[in-house]
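Batch manifest, entry 17 of 40.
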Amino acid sequence: MLLATSRLTLRRFREADAPELAAYRSDPDVAHYQGWTAPVTAEAALAWVHAFAAGSPTEPGWFQYAVELTAEGRLIGDVGVRLHDNLRQADIGYTLATAWQGHGYATEAVRAVLADLFETRGLHRVAAECDARNLRSAALLERVGFTREGMRRQATWMKGEWTDDLLYGLLAADRP
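Output type: structure tokens
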């Protein structure tokens, strides 16, 4: 376990997580605003799990936390953090299985990661971006204290269309 809340355990991915990862990332509703295309094969999920498990939460680069519902021991999503080379800034993203959305789990997981980044590791800034059509993701970012800093119009070519990107930032000094 790397982080814990009253309902969640945020931990390193394990090989046994691959089937559940493939299942929720294969859901077209989950994949819609994300960079991957559903369905996700078992082989791809296993490769992702190995890559996620090889990362370090304290070294520059991406680290993916497995978000587990503690009471059930079930993988329900993930939170990714890209720590910059200066170890003072990061980018964050998150994915949650459809069945577990709308219960505050993503907010809880993101808050736990932000607390670790700011309070334990002393980061200055965390950034996030999302597809402008993904209103639920934008609302989550604002709920946890991010400020909308701008929008890049038709900045990303994804799944056969240009999409607008909302840009968010959270400074240590501005945390709620």
